[in-house]
Amino acid sequence: MSSEKTLRELADENGVTIGAGIPARSFRQYPDDPTLAQTLKREFNAVTTANALKMGPLRPARKVYDFDDADAIVNFGVKNGMTVRGHTLLWHKQTPEWFLAWDYTDDQLETFVRDHIHTVAGRYHDKVDVWDVVNEAVADDGSMRETVWYEAMGEAYLDKAFEWANDVAPNAALYYNDYEIASDNDKADAVYDLLERLLDRGVPIDGVGIQMHSLPSYQHSREDPEAVGANIRRFKDLGLDVQVTEMDVAYGPDEEFDDRLDHQAQYYRDVLEACLDNGCNTLITWGVHDAGSWLQNRYEVTADPLLFDENFNPKPAYYAIRDLLESRS
Ligand code: XIL
Questions:
Q1: Mean pLDDT of 173-181
Q2: One of 43, 180, 223, 246 is an active-site residue; which one?
Q3: Whether 256 is catalytic
Q4: Tell me, what's the pLDDT at 258?
Q5: How many CB atoms lie within 10 A of CB 277?
Q6: pLDDT in tens, 287-302
Q7: With CB atoms 3.0 to 4.6 Å apart as the test, which of 129, 170, 268, 283 could cross-link to 244 if both were Cys?
Q8: Whole-angstrom Cα distance, residue 280 to residue 188?
Q9: Average pLDDT over residues 35-63
Q10: How is 34-53 classified by DSSP, letter by letter?
Q11: Cα 24–Cα 26–Cα 30 angle in degrees, nearest 5
Q12: At 144, is the secondary structure helix, strand, or coil?
């Protein structure tokens, strides 16, 4: 007989972290639409700020920080005893309009990034448990992505970003986060090499986040769970913790499955199992319910990639990971 325990209860019993990335608009609607908050705190023991801490939403003008949305999500997590993941201190996307127009020198940019990280990671030093310090620094072909940070500081921008985060948030776990690094493809190899160089240089990095957006539009999608497990293991063997940080499972218009939701459920279960069997104890989904997914109207994929449907009813994927945790209790 199926358990009546919630996903969160089973996660807690197993020492596993199951989380969701939450866009701020969901919290602005609250308490008009409390369903999201109720589902989140009942079923998950971790929450990620999906957009609120990105530089663009956070800094509407050069000298103005708007922490309202980030505070709402972070404080919700703290109040409800959840692990709080801060996403993200440095990324090449979702930067502010005014920043794109700013004609800075390399030194000015470095000072700017340092102040940004000190301000943001410092504000939440006793609230954010895990930071995605740098997001997506490696390009799809495995070369270093030529971001503005890279152009101004070279690869050392990662060293600096982690050190600046560590200055003000010494108790937080500091992560590098990226997509399409779930198996042993060229990009994953390049990220592995990059992280090895950081560790050799004594950079204070604790872990690697595997985003795990499982989308047919990506080159490497719905990777074989065994390969995912082996890849997690090699990052662990490097001395890093590993988390699955942004999972969703979507299908293309030409992928005809009668039992698509069962296939999706099995994939969630297999990935969580690969994770747990290889020393990764965290799986975060990129949203709670399908209607709140970033994949609505994007990439021409099925817009039902998450654990709960549009009415917050649990889907087969929810039961699949809940049953897996129950079988391991
Ligand atoms: C996405 C958000 O979910 C969207 O709301 C936003 O419009 C674009 O960014 N990798 C990441 C996340 O690290 O920050 C991205 O989030 C999804 C891909």
A1: 98
A2: 246
A3: no
A4: 83
A5: 14
A6: 999 999 999 989 899 9
A7: 283
A8: 17
A9: 96
A10: THHHHHHHHH-SEEEESSTT
A11: 115
A12: strand
DSSP string, 71-97: HHHHHHHHHTT-EEEEEEEE-SSS--H
* Burial class for 293, CB neighbours closer than 10 Å (0-12, 13-18, 19+): buried
Residue 30 pLDDT > 70, yes or no?
A: no
The tally of CA atoms less than 13 A away on the side-chain side of residue 260 is 15
C-beta separation of 307 from 288 below 8 A: yes
89-109 pLDDT, tens digit per residue, is 999 999 999 999 999 999 999
Indicate whether 1 pLDDT > 50: no
Q: In this structure, what token pair is assigned to residue 41?
A: 């705190």
Strands 46-49 and 83-90, sheet pairing: parallel
Sign of torsion, CA 287 24 46 203?
positive
- Give the N- to C-terminal CA distance of the chain in Å, as an integer: 15
Residue 90's φ and ψ, nearest 5 degrees, are -140, 120
pLDDT confidence of residue 26 = 67
Nearest CA to ligand 1 atom 16: 50
Helices (H) and strands (E) in the chain, counts: 13, 9
Largest CA distance in the chain: 64
Q: What are the structure tokens assigned to 81, written together?
A: 């005893």
C-beta separation of 195 from 154 below 8 A: no
* DSSP per position, 247-266: EEE---TT---TTHHHHHHH
Q: pTM to 2 decimals?
A: 0.97
Hey, whose CA ends up nearest to atom 2 of ligand 1? 294
Separation of CA 200 and ligand 1 centre (Å): 30
Integer Cα distance of 165 and 117 in angstroms:
6
Query: Could you write out the DSSP letters of every residue in 117-132?
Result: HHHHHHHTTTT-SEEE
